[in-house]
Predict the structure.
Amino acid sequence: MKKDNRREFLKKSLLGLSGAALAPGIINGYPELLSSDLTVPELPVRTLGRTGIKTPLISMGGAEASTPSFVRAAYEAGIKLFFSATYYGEGKNEQLVGEGLKDLPRDTFVLGTAVPPDNFDNRTGKFKTAFDVDSYLRKAEGSLKRFGLDHVDIFLFPYAGKRETVMNEGVLKALQQLKKQGKTRFLGIASHSDTEEALNAAVDAGIYDIAMIAYNYKVPGKDSLNAAVTAAVKAGMGVVAMKTIAGAGRPTSPVNSDAILKWVLQNENITSIVSGMSSLEQMQKNLAMIRNLKMTEQEMKDLNLGLLDKENDLYCRQCRQCIPQCPHDIDIPTIMRSYMYAYGYSNIPQAWHTLADSGIRNNPCGNCPECSVKCTAGFDVRKKIYDISRLRSVPEDFLIV
Ligand code: SF4
Ligand code: SF4
């Protein structure tokens, strides 16, 4: 849909609000949407590589959205690119995002999802057994059903890290099949760890149009990561950033989120930040931030303070250096991600499911006389594992997803 048409549609949908499209509190949270001409203010955009998609610098990661109307509010506010994943709430988040975007003109939003493969070992970043193409295609079908759509725009292969995984013959076959069948317009990877390797492999594979990567001011070795991002962009891929705010501190000791997000967008090769927004206030703040990316002196200082604050650091670099140091072969990076979801995002269902993925049933450090792990981020992993492992005793049906 052309911009003018979209504006017209938005005007109509806002004028026609009867409480069905948006909860009353949502529209009240958007004074700018109630301005006299009811147009959505222009948001700065960048182009997502060879897909040609122009998207505002802030996109929505659906994991933290708790209602369909919150997703719809993001759309009405001008956000265009939405992501979900099957592993958010065991598919329930895909349903929620689909509900939020239901009945909107299909060409006014861009939707992406990530479907995890079976038999994947987070500790090694490799498949435990041969990749099953048919089973993966069935899982992708399930994702589309939950969205209530016949196709997504971007289909991401998650857990991308090791070259052999990104270039796995079965993975490439399944993804190309999805595209051929019209179930996705574009293909991509999502990567939390070994990201440089994943980006380079994605370029070489030639079928991936997009990369969603963990990109955080606390990431060590930014120069080599930036070089891989630049190479991917030169090859025509579009790169979006996730986990940008992760590790910004606990809600009780937050650091300057504007500074952190602006830092990400100083890199013009990053098309958009996939933000896990959970409140209208946060959404408005993010949208205001992208109108002026110039960093103030205070914001620079705040970033440095964030780097020094080890006590409240929640950002696991997913470097996997801890794994060979633990004699009990625990999936510490996955447990640390669970810790971050719980203590950083207050997203207990996601923390619970991530913890379940790690395979632990209770505190695995209980019988270990001392911890031999020296975490590169300086985490006291034993303490964090103790804290978060208590969540494992909560029955799943207690979780509100
Ligand atoms: S060494 Fe530390 S930062 Fe790296 S994966 Fe392990 S817990 Fe995370
Ligand atoms: S305390 Fe826990 S993380 Fe540390 S070495 Fe023992 S089992 Fe591994």
Q: What stands out?
A: Confidence is low (pLDDT under 50) at residues 1-39. The two ends are 33 Å apart (CA to CA).
